[in-house]
Each structure stands twice: as structure tokens, then as C-alpha cells.
Amino acid sequence: MLDVPLKEYIRSLDEAAPPSEKFIIAELDDSNLFVKTAKAAFVEAKVKEFTNSLHYTKPEGIAGREG
Predict the structure, then answer these.
(1) In Å, what is the CA distance from 29 to each residue of 2, 7, 33?
(2) Could you tell me the CA-to-CA distances from 40 to 1, 11, 12, 58 in Å, in that order?
(3) Is the dihedral of CA 6, 7, 8, 13 positive or negative?
(4) 29: number of Cβ within 10 Å
(5) Taking Cα atoms as reference points, which of 14, 54, 53 lies closest to residue 33?
(6) What's the sign of the alpha-carbon dihedral 31, 32, 36, 41?
(7) Is 30 helix (H, G, I), strand (E, B) or coil?
(8) Can you supply one Gene Ontology CC term for this chain's record (predicted)?
(9) What does the alpha-carbon distance between residue 11 and residue 52 come to, in Å, rounded to a whole number?
(10) How far is CA 7 from CA 2, 54, 63, in A?
(11) Where are the beta strands (DSSP E) in 1-67?
């Protein structure tokens, strides 16, 4: 199950792909897509890359502000 923004991200990947590389077979509902089995690993990797890019990690060695 996907949230709407993640589904839109996957749709944008599919739309940007050339016709021979399209992978969405059907949109089942607001939060589920049916994709080609051969492209499932690609989609999973892209989703992981995308979600990891949204996380902030505080750099080590940086002191917090003191009031």
C-alpha cells in the first residue's frame, strides 16, 4: 500500500520512461499500483532512494545551540 505522494512519484517515473520501459500496468485504487514483475526491483530501489533522500541526519560533531 502506498501513500498518495509516493504513488505520484512512481507515476512520474513511469511517465518519464520511454514507451518500451513503462512499468505501470494498472492503477487499482488511490493507493495501489499493478506493475510489471520485471520492473518491480527497479521501482523498489527508486522508492527506497527517494524515501531515504527525505530523511535528515544531524551531522556528527555539531553542537546544539545553547540558550
Answers:
(1) 10, 10, 7
(2) 14, 13, 15, 32
(3) positive
(4) 8
(5) 14
(6) positive
(7) coil
(8) transcription factor TFIIH core complex
(9) 18
(10) 6, 15, 38
(11) 24-29, 32-35
Largest CA distance in the chain: 58
The helix/strand/coil state of 51 is: helix
pLDDT number for residue 38: 97
The identity of residue 66, as a single letter, is E
Confidence at residue 16, expressed as pLDDT on a 0 to 100 scale: 98
**pLDDT tens digit string along 3-62?**
888 999 999 999 999 999 999 999 999 889 999 999 999 999 999 999 999 888 888 876
d(CA 67, CA 29): 50
Which amino acid is present at 25?
Answer: I
Q: Using CA of residue 24, residue 22, residue 10, residue 45, what is the dihedral sign? A: positive
